[in-house]
Specification:
By secondary structure, the chain is mainly α. The chain has five helices and no strands.
Length: 77
């Protein structure tokens, strides 16, 4: 997931003032430390989690990807 923008996820979560524990609960993780492993990139978000993640962060799924990947996804649509 080299093109996945974890910095955007962390920044957006902080902008919206969403605690990691809330993210963990919403995504069905055991606790905040599990969610942190996803946000740090220790674990990879699964494709099926992206729509929910986008809803929680009030953004588009393409926001999670580098500009090049997002542009390609937009062109294909």
């Amino acid at each position: 997931m080299n093109n996945f923008n974890l910095e955007f996820i962390e920044q957006r979560r902080n902008e919206l003032d969403i605690p990691m524990q809330t993210m963990a609960i919403e995504l069905g993780f055991k606790n905040a430390s599990t969610y942190l492993k996803y946000e740090r990139g220790d674990y990879s978000f699964k494709a099926k989690q992206l729509p929910l993640l986008a809803r929680i962060l009030n953004c588009k799924i393409t926001d999670f990807f580098s500009l090049i990947v997002a542009d390609l996804a937009t062109e294909v649509s």
